Amino acid sequence: MKGNNILPKELNTGGGKNRYKYKPFNALVESLKIDVSYRSDKNQEEPEGFGSFFHDSLESWKEFNLSTHFAIFVREVSQYCQSLPQILYHKEDIVRILEDHLKVKNSLALEPLLDLVTKLARDLEIEFYPYFERIISVIIPLAKRQDVKTLECTFNCIAYLFKYLFNQIIADLNRTYGLIAPLLGEDSQKPYIRRFAAEAFAFLLRNTRGEKLTDIINHIFDLFNEYPTDAYRDGLNMLFYEAAQDTDNNLHDGALNLMRELLNKSYRDSLTCSNIESIYSYRITTSTTIALVHHVKSENFSLLWNFYLDELENLQNILLDKTDFANISQESLTKIGIMLSLVYICLTVRKGSRIKGNFKRIFNIMRNITQYALIKTLSYGYLFFQRQYFKTCVSLITLTGMNGFLAGGKYILDKIFDHDDTDCVLAFAHNVANLRWEHYEKIMLPYIVKYSSTHWEENPKKITLFLANLLSTKNLSIPPGTISSFITKSGLIKFPNAKSKYQNITDGLLRILNQNCDWASEINILNQVDLEAADMQPPHLTLVSAALTVISRVFIPFSEVFNSLSTCIKSLAEFLKSANSTTLLAFSNGPFTHSSPHVLMQNLLGQAIDSLASICQLNSETDDMEKLVKLWDLIIDEILLAYGTNHVVLRGVAGYLDLLRSSKKNDYLFNTKNFEKIYPHLKCNLSSFIHQRRLHSLKILSIFDQFPLITSESSQIDQEFCDIFSIGLQFEEIETAMNTSRNKTILLRKLSSLISTKRVPEFYSEVAPLHCFGVLTINFSDLWSDAIQVLVKFAELNPKKFWILIYNEFTRFNDGTKLEQTGLSETAIQFYFKEDQLFSKSVFRTGGISFECPNLLKYNKANEESQNLIFDKFVNGCIRHYISCCFPDNNRFDPLNYYGLLIKTLIEVPHIAERHSQQLVPLFLQFTNSKYNPVNDDNMMDIDSSGRNDNVQVMDVDDEAKDHVSTPAQSSKGSKPNMVLFLKLFAKFKNPRALHKSAELKDIYLRFLTKGDIKMQTLALNCLLTWKHKGIIAYEENLKNFVDESKFRDELSTFSLSRENGSIGFEHRDEVMPIIIRILYG
After folding, report:
1. Where is it found, in Gene Ontology cellular component terms (predicted)?
2. What is the Cα–Cα distance from 796 to 1029, expressed in whole angstroms?
3. 64 and 104 in contact (C-beta within 8 Å)?
4. b vs e for 988-1006, b when ≥16 Cβ sit within 10 Å of the residue's Cβ?
5. What is the pLDDT of residues 985-1044, one digit of tens each?
């Protein structure tokens, strides 16, 4: 055909703009807009003479909708709608017919019917209102349809009815709201239905004024309070937002009237409720404000901003008229608190970009009410007002910049830090710190230093915890060289001596360390602490931890702090040394640790050593270094060698050794003799799944003098020292992430190359494989293949030692406690990390409307954390800080995966595994019997009831394997990947007859043939083929076809057991048929 060869006349350069693009249901729903209040009807021509919109639309739809449903409707209604007078006369019949046809299930005529309803309402106007409730009751159920077009037509119909019957509906708006309320969420509707209903009813609400607006607002909340669900509240948020917003990112003319009514409703409800933030009217008002801040442009936002400030000024004037605070009513304070919360939202949402730098007025208001916010009282109205005051101050100070601070922020800070309520002031300072304000060190630090010094005696515990959190969370960073009267040249904070007959802050911190206490009872108190209990004193052990954090960053005369820390270290070391099994059993059942509770003291001991090293580093004088050297025997011989598996102790010792190594006078301490003494105690840490343990062990070992690489006698190369620990240290110091994986793999390959040279001294022979075992515990698959290759290279050079090491790793699974190498329990670790999870909330949007803001969530989180730390959960704050000093890791170790990687390593060197079958096979039998036992499978069958299954018997696991239960998996299903790996390993063996318990292995392979899993059957068959029975090998290809899905049917169709033309020789059937029967059963 010639038409197929016709070329286009011009190139299509449209970019596919008119191309149809498929959109899923949610995308189509999000793009719908129901609001019809701005749609003009002027484009529609008025009917001539006695014509009607209804009749004209009916005639039009006759051409567009040819469904049977609509044809029936036309036939029934045509006789009543030829003219407008006829429609008026037969309106009852027309409404009845519409009502009946709208009720038809799965109707194909809904779009024209809904359109005709609006046209009938436009024709009849006031005459249609008596039928309004009947029609709406029929239309509302259509909103449940899952058809986008039907949804659009349904809500457009409702919106047009509201528009055409506005004058009649407005007279009794409560009744209409009762009809539409189920769609707003009273019946738990979906978000898009709530949005469409809100857009439709918003037309009525935004055009209501005066008492009618007050009445409908009260009625809406009365109905809501009967069924106060979150879905319903979201529907009301959308309703009030749609009523207040206008086109072009503006506010509607009636927005301020609506917001005033919502405020008044919040005021009234606050009179009867002490918890203001739980009042639904207040919460809906704040959510509506958030959405409006998102919607309105900055040039249009001044209307709402000035409205809030006017209201706040009026309330402020009421306060200023009262000369005595006792005369100020709770109602006034609550109202100011509500207004401050709305101002806080305007300042915080979108980082205050809608206000356009107009902060002078709000600063003046905050100056005026400051005197009322800094008074000690416990009334609920005042406490709410005070909380909102501090939140607003935080947002003002952090968001207005230095110019805004100088304009009014300095006065506010002066007044706040003159306040005697230490809890309020500390919470405020901590809140600002959590937000990482760029001027914090310059502006806030002098206030904090002065206030902490003058109020230390009033609340030493909270000031200690506050400073510890401030200095340990990187919210306060003081680089050396900072010029300030409160900071030394080395970057330490210098507290002034308070004019008091009592101790100053530095003396108080040292007193916490020097306080004599019963460490055993302190362990018991912390280990048995109830994290949910209230009115509980913080464990002294946690206060010591907080004091150690502060002391390392505060200027204290070196002799004083050194004596206190060394005494503390000696006290802790003596207690741990004297602790026996009796005290261990007495405190071993607490929820805070899962093994020895003495790990709590080990953590504190490590922190004390780390603090001592940090202080000495900033006071690195000759005499100070000599004092450190005198502690060598205590820290190295008594602490490191005894508690070298605790990563906090390792961290402290690493800092101590690094500081000593910096002085050449101490080089004699780092000779190879001391190195040889320390290494055997730390080498087990190299394979630990805890990153901190591997990292600090490698730091310690790399600090010492190293042995030289092996060189031949004829070699002229200068002596080189082995850098195997340095390579491992570089690997651990690099963060594990996608963008750094290449650097880490390069180091692993460098390690492999070092082993390949055969120059590594025997002393280091276990370092590379042990560290690679540790790498395999990291939940990052990009590193595993290179780590396995290093292990393979090591196995080729030293197979005997390789087997000893990898077998030791397998035996760790025999005892579950060997896999739990961290002192803190899972409960304690989850308690530490759950606070962050509570605030990891995503911003929800529907139809382009958002009632949240990331920046607002950030400020709320900072405030909540500060309130919990100082007020609500002070004890929990102490415990959280102690846990943070233990450097917990939330990356869970996956023992099942690690077990599988060990098997993968053996698959690369099957000859070594086969050589040690005496140890490997019991491991496999133990794994199979405890976690993947096909004997207990419901799908097992009796091969032959007459007794031909004699070889199929219950597996007999040796006594050694029965003594322990392996823990790499929790179920047969979870263990399947590792069973697959085991079978792959055994399929590579050359002489299975010589294996330990080869008969039992063969029996297991036969049983796996009955499993309904092609992969398992294939691997089991491959294992059986390694026996190389002559009768089976001859049919190897046929057997493999039976476990190949693509060839199974062909093989089965040609399979025959006849004597003359049988597929299998008669003499081979005894060997082959048991295999085929099992495969076919599986």
Report:
1. 90S preribosome; small-subunit processome
2. 31
3. no
4. bbeebeebbbbebbbbbbb
5. 999 999 988 899 989 998 888 888 888 778 888 888 888 888 887 767 766 777 777 777
Q: Tokens for 747, please give them.
A: 């180091």
Chain centre to alpha carbon of residue 530 = 25
The dihedral region occupied by 711, where left means phi > 0, alpha psi between -120 and 50, and beta the remainder, is beta
Question: Containing H/E element for 251?
Answer: strand 250-251
Q: How confident is the model at residue 487 (pLDDT cuts 50, 70, 90)?
A: confident
**CB of 912 within 8 A of CB of 989?**
no
What sign does the CA torsion over 790, 793, 794, 799 have?
Answer: positive
Q: From 420, 404, 266, select the one nearest 336 (Cα to Cα).
A: 266
Alpha helices by DSSP H, listed for 32-67, are 53-64
User: What pLDDT sits at residue 940?
Assistant: 41
CB of 136 within 8 A of CB of 161?
A: yes
Give the type of residue at 524. Answer: N
* Type of residue at 248: D
CA 877, CA 473: separation in Å to the nearest integer?
Answer: 13
- Beta bridge mates, 487: 484, 493
Quickly list H helices, 886-946: 895-908, 910-915, 917-931
Please give the helix or strand (H or E) that residue 250 lies within, else none: strand 250-251
Q: Among 14-28, 477-491, 732-746, which range has the highest average pLDDT?
A: 732-746
Cα torsion angle, 810, 815, 818, 820, sign: positive
**Is the separation of the CB atoms in 50 and 84 below 8 Å?**
yes
- Whole-angstrom Cα distance, residue 326 to residue 9? 89
Residues 775-827 pLDDT 10s: 999 999 999 999 999 999 999 999 999 999 999 999 988 765 566 555 777 77
Query: Token digits for 798?
Result: 């030293």
Residue 309: what are its φ and ψ, rounded to 5°? Answer: -65, -40
Sign of CA dihedral 805, 809, 812, 814: negative
pLDDT tens figures, 340-350:
999 999 999 99
What's the pTM value of the predicted model, to 2 decimals?
0.82
pLDDT (tens digit per residue) in 269-321: 999 888 999 999 999 999 999 999 999 999 999 999 999 999 999 999 988 87
Question: How far is Cα 330 from Cα 851, in angstroms, rounded to an integer?
Answer: 29
Q: What are phi and psi of 580, to 5 degrees?
A: -115, 180
CA-based nearest residue to 893, from 882, 881, 901, 903: 901
Number of other CB atoms surrounding residue 180 within 10 Å: 20
Per-domain residue ranges of the chain: 23-164, 247-401, 913-1081
Q: Residue 850: how many CB atoms within 10 A of its CB?
A: 18
- d(C-alpha 865, C-alpha 868), whole Å: 5
Q: Is residue 635 within 8 Å of residue 654, measured between CB atoms?
A: no
Radius of gyration for the chain, computed over Cα atoms and rounded to the nearest angstrom: 40
CA pair distance 380, 560, nearest whole angstrom:
46
Query: How many CB atoms are located within 10 Å of the residue 135 CB?
Result: 21
- Side chain identity, residue 723: D
Give the count of alpha carbons within 13 A of 56, CB side only: 15
- DSSP 8-state class, residue 762: G
Residue with tokens 């760790």: 812
Contact 547, 512 (CB under 8 A): yes
439, two tokens? 């001027």
Contact, 29 vs 192, CB < 8 A?
A: yes
**What confidence tens digit (pLDDT) does each residue in 192-221 have?**
889 899 999 999 999 999 999 999 999 999
CB 252 within 8 A of CB 208: no
Task: Find, among 253, 274, 346, 266, the residue nearest to 306 by Cα.
Answer: 346
Q: Is the pLDDT of residue 975 over 70?
A: yes
Dump the DSSP string for 671-703.
SHHHHHHHHHHHGGGGG-S-HHHHHHHHHHHHH
Report the pLDDT value the prediction gives residue 888, as an integer from 0 to 100.
84
Q: Which residue has the tokens 């100082």?
A: 870
